[in-house]
Design brief:
With 401 residues, this protein is α+β, with helices and mostly antiparallel strands. It has six helices and twelve strands. It comes from Cryobacterium gelidum.
Length: 401
């Protein structure tokens, strides 16, 4: 490097080479980040398709069970009519009518009346039997459809699991590429700055400057972290004060961050602003739009409000994920996980692989992704399915607002 500085032409060439290296690293990092975002979007679509298929299979099975019950009832009624028909027709009324035709007119009229009633009974029995057969066929058809829907659900479940693995791998690759790019860029920027120095005698001063810049950068990062933590604590205190002044309207029977006897915690303070179930599509400022079924409960937290782990577990996702915006997912064991969406930019307090305790501060509320206003989109997963969080949390002594 000293020789390069003594040679203006050589120094200029090396400066250009370093600039190209830095540009290449930045391009590589952007490509890896784009691949991770694509995998995350594919994961979200796969999960949506699986959940929709699961609901379809359950609906069809319910219809099949109802149709089977109808068929059984109709078959029973048909049997009862057949028995009645047998008792009524113990003798051949047509023969009786012929043999007794020699009698008076009153006898003949009576036999004709009996014959008419029997014909009506036969006709009614046939109708009931036909209805029973139709209901039986319908129940079988629905049962077959339910089996197909269940097979489709299983296929989509496997696809969702594969998409999750791919998305997690892509996200990790992007994080690694970013770390490598940043580390290499710092090194190359230092070399670049050194070679741009016209005098070799300034080397010692340059190295001292690098050390000073590193120290100042560390001070700045620490100050920003302290300010962010102070803001989160202030927001938490304000939320708790607001809940106390309003008679505890923020939560029902428990407060955000406090842990119940069962080991569960309310993830945030705020009233419920959106429930689990069908709803209109919502589009955020980023242009991303949600689906027509809401697999979560929304809590109106306000911007920057603290979000807490609902139970002890391990963080399996901490990053951008499609319409979720910034998203954290925690696995609690026993096939149970919880998800926290629309976290504000820079609002993470945890990383993938980190163990957390119930009620631990994990993030700050925001409006990233398909969101209109700052709130917590809170999900509960049992296996691969997202369920209604409200009764689940209430059963564990951590009722949502």
């Amino acid at each position: 490097m000293q020789n390069a500085k003594a040679n203006t032409v050589s120094a200029a060439a090396q400066v250009s080479a370093i600039e190209n290296l830095i540009a290449g690293l930045q391009a590589q990092e952007q490509e890896t980040r784009a691949a991770a975002e694509k995998s995350a979007n594919e994961l979200e679509v796969a999960q949506q398709e699986f959940d929709d298929a699961a609901r379809r299979a359950a609906d069809i099975q319910t219809q099949a069970d109802a149709s089977k019950a109808t068929a059984e009832a109709a078959t029973t009624q048909a049997g009862q009519l057949a028995a009645q028909l047998y008792r009524t027709g113990g003798t051949d009324l047509s023969v009786n009518l012929f043999l007794e035709g020699e009698g008076d007119g009153a006898d003949a009229d009576l036999l004709l009346a009996k014959l008419g009633n029997m014909s009506k009974l036969v006709e009614r029995s046939a109708d009931v039997y036909e209805s029973a057969q139709t209901a039986t066929n319908n129940a079988q058809s629905l049962s077959d459809q339910a089996k197909v829907a269940q097979a489709e659900r299983e296929t989509l479940r496997v696809a969702a699991e594969l998409a999750l693995s791919a998305a997690q791998a892509a996200a990790q690759a992007a994080a690694n590429a970013l770390a490598e790019s940043e580390a290499k860029s710092v090194e190359l920027e230092q070399q670049l700055q050194f070679m741009r120095d016209a005098q070799a005698t300034t080397t010692a001063g340059y190295e001292a400057g690098v050390a000073e810049r590193a120290r100042l950068e560390a001070v700045r990062v620490a100050a920003e972290a302290a300010a962010r933590a102070a803001a989160v604590r202030a927001a938490a205190a304000a939320a708790e004060a607001a809940a106390a002044s309003s008679g505890g309207s923020g939560v029902s029977g428990s407060s955000a961050g406090s842990v119940s006897m069962s080991g569960w915690s309310v993830p945030a303070s705020g009233r419920i602003t959106g429930g689990y179930g069908p709803r209109s599509t919502i589009c955020g400022s980023s242009g991303q739009c949600s689906g027509s079924f809401h697999y979560a409960t929304d809590l109106g937290t306000g911007c920057g409000a603290p979000l807490y782990a609902a139970r002890a577990g391990v963080v399996t996702w901490a990053g951008a994920l499609g319409t979720y915006g910034n998203f954290v997912k925690i696995s609690h064991g026993d096939n149970v996980s919880t998800g926290y969406a629309h976290i504000e930019d820079g609002g993470y307090n945890v990383r993938v692989g980190q163990s957390v305790s119930a009620g631990q501060l994990i993030a700050s509320s925001g409006d990233t992704g398909a969101a209109q206003g700052c709130h917590l989109h809170f999900e509960v997963w049992i296996g691969g399915n997202r369920i209604n969080p409200v009764p689940f949390m209430a059963d564990r002594g951590a009722s949502l607002g």
